[in-house]
Amino acid sequence: MKLALTFLLLFVASFAFNQNFDIYVSDAGNFNNPPWQILKFDGNGENPIVFIDNNLNWPQDILFFEDSNFVLISNLGSGRITKHNATTGEFIADFATSISGPTRVKIGPDNLLYVLQWSGNGKVLRYALNGTFIDEFTSVGVPSSIGIDWDNNGNLYVSSYSGDLVRKFDASGLDLGVFIDSDLSGPTNIWFDSNGDLLVADYDGSAVTRFDTAGNYLSDFMLGLSKCEGVDFFPEGDILIGNGGTSSVKLFDSDGNYVEDFIASGSGNLLNPNAVVIRENPTISITETEGIRANIIYPTIGEEFFVNQEYLTEITSIDVYGISGRFVEKVEITNFPAWRADNYLEGIYMVAIKFSDGSVYSEKIIVKK
């Protein structure tokens, strides 16, 4: 049985991902003056190469679309989000223009792209994933906005660097007021941890600070930082964070303890890291056997997929991965025999199906809308 991208195929497995990582860092250079670059490091934070150094103007954030093989770079200085080949870094086209200083870009719960604006009216913008402008999402603006995340209830939070605050919006963009307005000094990235606390990186302070679900200060979570901006997380919970004060990227464990300078000061001529992305490059090892438990998932193409009822009582879990190996979703068994993939990007996905006897099968589906 041969692999083919347009058919649903069966594999019996020892099904394993051998995860490798590359680290991408946006270098703001001299801020509103060059040099600007997007650097690529290996999984050890070494062997830097210049991934992108053209069509940049004060780059702010990096967002990969693995299944479509492109990457977006937000550029504060030019008001553009540029689209590049995710493998080579080659410029493809402008994804969006005429933005008032785009900073963070992030896909929201509604599968739209949320874009923060440093200047202008400061409202959060939304775009379809093909670059079509949707709307100004928030009812009020956030000046110098540069950090974004959602809580478990779908409420949106945006940090203001110049205002030393974090503002809260409901799931429809209605302003719910200032969530945090103390114990901050130039907040940049924000993110929620597993217990619902909000963590805030303080660019002009020396720490990442923890706040509870009511916005009350709890503690300093990560210490010894200077001009911190740009953060991402390894699967086991370790944290990478840019540290502009030393032109480096630091590694902390999941408890906030400093481990090491993961990317050394000035490596690759790094000046001011302001976005950090950990990108998986998995290889998949599958042992193939024909003719056993065929056609578990059907149809091969579409937005709604079904599980063959013959196997329902034997299946213990179903996990969905992008073709690159990026984990997408664990399908709840209670949703059987069907689940919808209308919130997925169009493309090819691998479905890993585990049975009660320990065997794991993999089938490919194509999400087409």
Structure description:
This protein has 369 residues and is mostly beta strands. The protein has 2 domains: 11-15 and 283-367, Immunoglobulin-like (Sandwich); 20-280, TolB, C-terminal domain (Neuraminidase), CATH 2.120.10.30. Helix content is 0%, strand content 50%. The chain contains no helices and 35 strands. The chain has strands at 11-13, 16-18, 21-27, 37-41, 49-52, 59-65, 70-75, 80-85, 91-96, 102-107, 113-117, 125-127, 133-136, 145-150, 156-160, 165-169, 175-180, 187-192, 198-202, 207-211, 217-223, 228-233, 239-243, 248-252, 258-263, 273-280, 283-285, 297-298, 301-302, 304-307, 315-322, 327-331, 338-340, 347-355, 360-367. Strands 1, 29, 31, 32, 34 and 35 form a 6-stranded mixed sheet that branches. A 4-stranded antiparallel sheet has the order 5-4-3-26, with no helix packed on it. A 4-stranded antiparallel sheet has the order 6-7-8-9, with no helix packed on it. A hairpin with a 7-residue loop joins strand 11 (113-117) and strand 12 (125-127). 37% of the residues are buried.
